[in-house]
Amino acid sequence: MLGKQSIHFEKKPYIISSASVVGSKEAQGPMGELFDKVGYDDKFGGQTWEEAESILQKEALEIALSKAELRKQDLQMVFAGDLLGQSIASSFGMAGYQLPHVGLYGACSTCGLSLTVGGMAVSAGFAEKAACITSSHFASAEKEFRFPLAYGNQRPKSATWTVTGSGAFVLSSQPGKQTRAVIEGATVGKIVDYGIKDSMNMGACMAPAAADTIRQNLEDFGREPKDYDRIITGDLGEVGQQLLFDLLAEKQIDITRQHMDCGIEIYESEKQHTDAGGSGCGCSAAVLSAYILKKIEEGIWKRVLFVPTGALLSKTSFNEGQTIPGIAHGVVLEHFEG
Fold first, then answer.
1. Cβ atoms 23, 35 nearer than 8 A
2. Is residue 135 part of a domain?
3. What is the pLDDT of residues 224-240, one digit of tens each?
4. Helix (H) / strand (E) containing 164
């Protein structure tokens, strides 16, 4: 343990492979050419939106294993999660692999949570190789948290657009032929609740948790923002980004030069009509695999703080008038020198 909330891995886990699979809208965005696979039928050959999300995860893991020249039998554990009730996208998507399955739920922060827990398992020697997978789907998420698409409800400008996508990452205790990054450590987030109840403004719900985790990471690791080439949040969008800057400014922390938000980068908001930007488990996961790890692998970025954020609500809690707490998990990723 390092400081109050962080972990510094003495034996570093390596990300030796990754893959991203996205839907048609994501392929039309600025990063469209970087994703490994695009499904222009957003049901991906399935019968339902939920089945489509399971297919997303299955295909992302297949591609990641193929890149690493591994078989499914080479994995000791799978850490997977999604946004749906009882994590059904992950359970149905991963069932055919018949691997030890650790189901995780961190809402849209699940990519950071899976990399943290998976990194702990690999670093401690409980697994030589493990996979971390997460996903989201616009249509299944709208059905789960708001209204089915057929309802045709209007969206305020503060709303974010749930990304249809999945990211899969293979972790190893040893470097691979093409090591994408090293996980130096992680800062496990706390649940932070500012009393916000607006489910159409997820950025505002999650920004306080992002600010708390970033501040704690800098304190625990004894660093300043300039020690990171990028500090990357998962899906705050335009509204949440400004709130993040304001909250950190109160603590005399300025990350405006280093900050990037996956939800802002994945879409062209005005052209694609995605309001405040992207969100969902698949948002940060797909951008991490397709874009962020590419920059780290090439040595353009030497050290990155990756902080996906999650809003911890359900239909039940929302309909009962509960607040929407947030959580954010920080993962420190570094370039592998070889």
1. no
2. yes
3. 999 999 999 999 999 99
4. none
Are residues 145 and 199 in contact, defined by beta-carbon separation less than 8 angstroms?
Answer: yes
- Number of Cβ within 10 Å of residue 67's Cβ equals 19
CB contact set of 271 (below 8 Å; sequence gap of 6+): none
More confident residue, 189 or 269: 189
Q: What percent of the chain stands above pLDDT 90?
A: 84
Let me know the angle formed at the C-alpha of 253 by 248 and 257, rounded to the nearest 5 degrees: 100
Residues 6+ apart with CB under 8 A from 25: 138, 161, 164, 267, 272, 274
Examine residue 219 and state whether it is found in any structural domain, yes or no.
Answer: yes
| Of 117, 72, 81, residue with least CA distance to 99 | 72
| 192 and 112 within one domain | no
**pLDDT per position as a tens digit, 270-298:** 888 888 889 999 999 999 999 999 999 99
Question: What pLDDT digit, counting tens, does each position of 183-239 carry?
Answer: 999 999 999 999 999 888 889 999 999 999 999 999 999 999 999 999 999 999 999
Centre a 10 Å sphere on the Cβ of residue 16 and count the other Cβ atoms it contains.
25
Within this chain, do residues 243 and 224 fall inside the same structural domain, yes or no? Answer: yes
Cβ contacts of 101-104, under 8 Å, gap ≥ 24:
101/77, 102/77, 102/78, 104/79, 104/80
Average pLDDT of the segment spanning 139-152: 80
Work out how many domains the chain is built from and give that number: 2
139 close to 42: Cβ distance less than 8 angstroms: yes
Of 172, 199, 232, which residue is a domain's last? Answer: 172
Query: By the 8 A CB rule, do 203 and 241 touch?
Result: yes
The answer as to whether 3 is a domain residue is no
Distance between CA 309 and CA 202 in Å, rounded?
10
Torsion of CA 35, 39, 42, 43, to 10 degrees: -130
- Least Cα distance to 132 among 111, 105, 163 occurs for 111
> Whole-prediction pTM value?
0.95
Amino acid at 218: L
